[in-house]
Design goal:
With about 140 residues, the chain is mostly helical. Helix content is about 85%, strand content about 0%. It has helices at about 5-15, 20-105, 110-130. The longest helix is centred in the middle third of the chain and has 85 residues, at about 20-105. The chain is rod-shaped. The N and C termini lie far apart (about 155 Å).
Length: about 140
């Protein structure tokens, strides 16, 4: 309200209420206006608080959703990694078992065929080291 409007209301109140009761009425109206302003202020602050609480709840829900998604991703990665490690361990165990199975076969005694091949190789090597055999001259 503008100053001129307030001045007009004061003059009308002075005429209607009279000069004796005007100070009491003005005091009562002042108290009522103060209470009304405090009430409006309280309502505004309560509304702001509720809006902030709603925003915090939304933020909390978003964070919980993100945390659940992250937890799922981590669990999935752990399961995948565990499966890969188990495959690697199984592969290594199979390779070790295969090596252990082939190791006794290579240290087994030679068979008669292998022994005769080895003797034949030794004979031909000693014959070559003695030099060429003399050739009979043809006359």
């Amino acid at each position: 309200m503008a100053f001129s409007e307030m001045l007009i209301i004061a003059v009308i109140a002075l005429l209607v209420i009279g000069p004796e009761k005007l100070p009491k009425v003005a005091k009562t109206v002042g108290h009522l206006l103060g209470k009304a302003q405090r009430y409006v202020s309280d309502v505004k602050s309560e509304i702001n608080r509720e809006m902030e609480i709603d925003e915090l709840r939304k933020l909390q829900a978003e964070m919980q959703t993100a945390a659940r998604k992250m937890e799922g991703d981590v669990q999935s990665t752990i399961r995948d990694t565990e499966a890969d490690l188990n495959k690697s361990v199984k592969s290594i165990e199979d390779d070790i078992a295969e090596l252990e199975a082939s190791k006794p076969a290579s240290t087994a005694p030679q068979t008669t065929t292998q022994a005769s091949v080895t003797k034949a190789e030794e004979s031909s090597a000693s014959a070559q080291s003695a030099g060429p055999a003399p050739k009979a001259e043809a006359k």
